Q: What sequence folds into this?
DNA sequence: GCCGTTTTCGGCCCGACTGTTTTCAGTCG
C-alpha cells in the first residue's frame, strides 16, 4: 500500500506543530508547513514520482532535506522524529493544539510548568484549577480552555457549500439593510467555490467603520459572540456556522476582498510579488512607502502587480500566478455555455417528476437537450428499470421527441457497474440508447486496484460512455471508494469514454482537483446534475464551480457542445 | 528549511483581537 500525498502532508504538518512547540526556528516550521500544503495540493503522487526516479527537490518548497524526508515517509510510512516519544516534547502534545485558544507557546508552558503531555493530563489540571496560576494564563483563559475542550467531541465538520449559501443569505440581507453599509460580499473559500467551507468570511465596506460590528452583534440568529472589535467580529450562528466579519473603507475594497478571498497561499504569493516590486500589500491596499497605489478594486490590484484579473476559483497558488504572468489563464467555462443536462432521473425509478415534466422544465431553461437516466434493475431500492421497462421508456421517449419542440430528449440510463465489471443490462438493450452513464452503487470496499480494474473492465464494453460520480462519495456522509483516478482517466481516454462532474451539492464528484487532472490529461467531462426532481436542475451551477476550480474551459465540457457534435463525441468507434 | 531581477547569506506575509498585562505576547485567519 503506497503512501499518498495527503498522508505525507499530514506527517509534515504534525511535525511542524511539534517543532513549533519546541520553539524551533519559526522559518523552519514554515518550511514544513509550506511543503505540506504544496504536497497535498499537488496532483501527482510523491510515491509515483520517486518510483520513476524524479528529483523531488526540484519541486517548489521542497529542498534536499525535505526530499529525503519524503523518501523516508514513502519507504517506511512514517517519520522517525515524529514517532519518538521524547521526554522533552512528546508527540502527543500535538493533540493539544486542536483546542481553540491553545497555540504552541501555551502548550509548551503547560508541558514545562505542569507536565501536561496530552488531553487527559489537561483535563486533570483543569479539575485542580492549577492552570490559572501560570504566567500568561488567567481565570478567563482557563475557562476558555475548559469550553473549547468540551467542543472537541462534537468537532465541526466542514459545511457543504449549499448549506453555507442558505445560512449566508438572510445574514447578507440583514447586513445590507444597515444604511451605513456600502457593499457586502462573502469572501473566503465560499467565493473560491470550494465544495465545503470551514466558515463564512464576510466583508463589509463602509465610509465609517463605526458600529458595523455592533449592528451585526444584534443579528437574531447568533448563538455566541466569540470576538467583537471595531473592524472585526467573529461569531457562531445557531446553525453552528462560524462567521468572520471584517469592515474596511471602500477605498480598500479590492485589497480586502483579495486578501480575505485567499487562498492563504495565493494571498501570500501576492504579497511576495508586491515585495519583489518594492511595494507592500495588505488588506487596506497596495502601497509604495505610505502612498496607496491600488486597492479599491481587485482588477486594479492585479493590474498594479502587472497581472490580468484572476478568477477566485483559480486562487489556490497552483500555477495561476505563473499562468497569469504568461497570459495563459484559462477562459473558464460558464453556466451560459451549458446546452443540456446528461444525467437525470424520472418517477420511473427514484425520481419525482415525469419525463414530460422534466422536458418542459429543461426547455424553459433554454436547454437544447436533456437525457433521461433512470437506474438499472440492480438498484432495487431505487426501483431500477429492467430490460422490458427500459425498452418501453425508450419507445415512449421516441414518441415524445416527435411532439416536442425546441428540445431533444436523449435516451439513456444510469446503469450499474457490477462487481465483475459487467453492466447491469444486456448490450442489446444498451445499444438502443443514445449513450450510457455508468456507475458503482455496490461493493464500495474493494481495494483500490480491484475497484480501478472493475471500472476499466466496464469501460471495455463499447456501450460504456460516461462514468458517473467517479468516487461515489457523499459529503460528510460517505467516504469515497478507492480508485486510482489517473489510471481511470487514462483508461477512459484510450477507450473513448468520459467522466462525469456530478453537480449534486452532496456529491461534487469529480471535484476541482479531479477536474484539474482531467484537464491535464485532456480528457473531456460531462457536468451533470443527477436531478431527481425539477428543482434539482438548478444544481448545474455547483458543477460549474468545480469545473472552474479545475481550470476547465468550454471545449473541455461535453454538454457545452451542440447536439450533433455531442453525438459524435459520444460515439465509440 | 527554502530560496534567489537586492543570489549562496540573510531574508522569510501581515494585521486584529483578547487577556494579561501596564506595553505586549499569544492566537488566529
A:
Amino acid at each position: 500500500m503506497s503512501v499518498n500525498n495527503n498522508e505525507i502532508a499530514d506527517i509534515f504538518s504534525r511535525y511542524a506543530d511539534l517543532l513549533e512547540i519546541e520553539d524551533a526556528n519559526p522559518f523552519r516550521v514554515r518550511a514544513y508547513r509550506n511543503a505540506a500544503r504544496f504536497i497535498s495540493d499537488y496532483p501527482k503522487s510523491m510515491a509515483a514520482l520517486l518510483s520513476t526516479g524524479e528529483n523531488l527537490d526540484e519541486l517548489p518548497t521542497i529542498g534536499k532535506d525535505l526530499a529525503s524526508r519524503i523518501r523516508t515517509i514513502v519507504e517506511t510510512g512514517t517519520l522517525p522524529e515524529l514517532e519518538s516519544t521524547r521526554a522533552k516534547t512528546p508527540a502527543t502534545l500535538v493533540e493539544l493544539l486542536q483546542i481553540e485558544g491553545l497555540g504552541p507557546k501555551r502548550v509548551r508552558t503547560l508541558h514545562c510548568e505542569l507536565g501536561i503531555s496530552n488531553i487527559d493530563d489537561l483535563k486533570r489540571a483543569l479539575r485542580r484549577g492549577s492552570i490559572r496560576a501560570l504566567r500568561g494564563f488567567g481565570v478567563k483563559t482557563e475557562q476558555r480552555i475548559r469550553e473549547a475542550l468540551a467542543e472537541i467531541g462534537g468537532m465541526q465538520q466542514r459545511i457543504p457549500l449549499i448549506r453555507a449559501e442558505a445560512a449566508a443569505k438572510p445574514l447578507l440581507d440583514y447586513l445590507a439593510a444597515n444604511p451605513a453599509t456600502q457593499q457586502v460580499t462573502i469572501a473566503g473559500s465560499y467565493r473560491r467555490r470550494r465544495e465545503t467551507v470551514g466558515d463564512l468570511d464576510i466583508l463589509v465596506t463602509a465610509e465609517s467603520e463605526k458600529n458595523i460590528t455592533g449592528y451585526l452583534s444584534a443579528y437574531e440568529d447568533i448563538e455566541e459572540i466569540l470576538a467583537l472589535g471595531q473592524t472585526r467580529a467573529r461569531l457562531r450562528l445557531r446553525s453552528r456556522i462560524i462567521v468572520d466579519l471584517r469592515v474596511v473603507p471602500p477605498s480598500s475594497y479590492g485589497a480586502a476582498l483579495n486578501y480575505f478571498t485567499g487562498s492563504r497561499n495565493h494571498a501570500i504569493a501576492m504579497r511576495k510579488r508586491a515585495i519583489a516590486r518594492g511595494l507592500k500589500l495588505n488588506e487596506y491596499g497596495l502601497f509604495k512607502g505610505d502612498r496607496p497605489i491600488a486597492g479599491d478594486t481587485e482588477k486594479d490590484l492585479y493590474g498594479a502587480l502587472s497581472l490580468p484579473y484572476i478568477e477566485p476559483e483559480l486562487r489556490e497558488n497552483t500555477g495561476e500566478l505563473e499562468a497569469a504572468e504568461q497570459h495563459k489563464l484559462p477562459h473558464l467555462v460558464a453556466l451560459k455555455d451549458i446546452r443540456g443536462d446528461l444525467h437525470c432521473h424520472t418517477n420511473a425509478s427514484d425520481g419525482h417528476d415525469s419525463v414530460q415534466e422534466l422536458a418542459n422544465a429543461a426547455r424553459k431553461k433554454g436547454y437544447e437537450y436533456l437525457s433521461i437516466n433512470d437506474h438499472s434493475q440492480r438498484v432495487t431500492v431505487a426501483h431500477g428499470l429492467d430490460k422490458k421497462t427500459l425498452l418501453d421508456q425508450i419507445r415512449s421517449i421516441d414518441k415524445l421527441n416527435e411532439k416536442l419542440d425546441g428540445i431533444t430528449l436523449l435516451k439513456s440510463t444510469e446503469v450499474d457497474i457490477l462487481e465483475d465489471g459487467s453492466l447491469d443490462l444486456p448490450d442489446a438493450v444498451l445499444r438502443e440508447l443514445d449513450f450510457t452513464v455508468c456507475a458503482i452503487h455496490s461493493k464500495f470496499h474493494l481495494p483500490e486496484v480491484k475497484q480501478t480494474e472493475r471500472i476499466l473492465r466496464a469501460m471495455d464494453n463499447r456501450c460504456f460512455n460516461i462514468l458517473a460520480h467517479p468516487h461515489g462519495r457523499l459529503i460528510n456522509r460517505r467516504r469515497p471508494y478507492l480508485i486510482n483516478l489517473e489510471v481511470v482517466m487514462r483508461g477512459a481516454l484510450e477507450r473513448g469514454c468520459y467522466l462525469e462532474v456530478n453537480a449534486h451539492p452532496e456529491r461534487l464528484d469529480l471535484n476541482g482537483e479531479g477536474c484539474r487532472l482531467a484537464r491535464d490529461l485532456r480528457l473531456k467531462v460531462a457536468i451533470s446534475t443527477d436531478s431527481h426532481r425539477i428543482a434539482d436542475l438548478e444544481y448545474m451551477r455547483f458543477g460549474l464551480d468545480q469545473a472552474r476550480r479545475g481550470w476547465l474551459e468550454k471545449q473541455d465540457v461535453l454538454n457545452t457542445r451542440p447536439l450533433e457534435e455531442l453525438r459524435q463525441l459520444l460515439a465509440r468507434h
Remarks:
- The two ends of chain A are 37 Å apart (CA to CA).
- The mean pLDDT of chain A is 90.
- Residues 9 and 36 of chain A are 4 Å apart (CA to CA).
- The first helix of chain A runs from residue 5 to 21.
